[in-house]
Amino acid sequence: MSENVCYVDAYVRSVAATVRAVEPAADEAKGALVLLDRTVFYPGGGGQPADRGEIRAPDGRTWRVVAARKAGEEVWHELEPGVEPPAVGPTVFTADVDWDRRLRLMRTHTALHALCGVVWRDYGALVTGGNMEPGGGRMDFEFERMSGEFVGSIEAAVNEELARGRDVRVAFLPRDEAFAIPDLIRTKVNLLPPGIATIRTIEIVGLDLQADGGTHVANTRDVGGIRVTGYESKGRINKRIRIELVDE
Fold first, then answer.
1. Strand, coil or helix: what is 118?
2. Domain boundary at 97, 120, 145, which?
């Protein structure tokens, strides 16, 4: 099993690693897949896109990583098409994540958890879907009605919570202990496979606690602020809220 540092510390930008395996490109439109013994790349999931970055050799050669994906417990790194991959062996490479993009995704993901925490605390609405890109995202909730005034009050409450400087903590809990926590799963459908023995949780202290596999900032103050950019109905009791980061 390859070690993925991002699940423990999302602020690590690079690690030393060796190449354990290489899979040739499936076709000309795809790049080869590289398996490292250690990585910092988030492989995507839970609405958060996979990281990008590069693999760098001691002699200065670089391979651009356009995506990462998880297969079982392994994280494979997809290179750009048409590039000969690095060789399997003892050579120590450096795996570097695209930090500017990762940090925007971390800020966005934490902002969406703050949104979820406010909506659950104030209205008890479950999440029915979500997605994000660097700097913006959306969440769907079980609401029957929605208005500009209502969404404006949610935006104000989220920004108030972000400004409080609440710590964001990562924990790994045995499955039974995790599921003893009330309301740990905020989605309408529990998406956690039954075979997972250890549950990773993300806690915005005093606001939100959920099972989650993504990367986050260490404090809500690091998010900055958000603005609601739109809202829409996706069904009788399914309403979508779109947000974006407000950069200083």
1. helix
2. 97
* Cα Rg, the chain, nearest whole Å: 19
Q: Quick one: 186 and 232 in the same domain?
A: yes
Q: What distance in Å separates the CA atoms of residue 7 and residue 179, rounded to the nearest whole number?
A: 20
CA–CA dist 184, 193 (Å, integer): 15
Kind and range of the H or E element at 24?
none
248 pLDDT tier (thresholds 50, 70, 90): low
How far is the C-alpha of 42 from the C-alpha of 103, rounded, in Å? 12
Q: Are 219 and 200 in contact (CB under 8 A)?
A: no
pLDDT tens for each residue of 36-56: 999 999 999 989 999 999 999
CB 234 within 8 A of CB 140: yes
Domain shared by 217 and 236, yes or no? yes
CA distance 28 to 30: 5
Domain count within the chain:
2
CATH number of the domain enclosing 215: 3.30.980.10
Give residue 56's identity as a one-letter amino acid code: R
Q: How many whole angstroms separate alpha carbon 102 and alpha carbon 135?
A: 10
| Residue 87 to residue 246: CA distance in whole angstroms | 43
**16-46 exposure pattern, b = at least 16 Cβ within 10 A, e = fewer:** ebebeebeebeeeebbbbbbbebbbbbbbeb
Nearest to 217 by CA among 171, 173, 185, 170: 170
For residue 184, what pLDDT is reported? 74
Q: Give the DSSP H/E element, type plus range, for residue 172.
A: strand 168-174
Clarify whether residues 143 and 25 are in a common domain. no
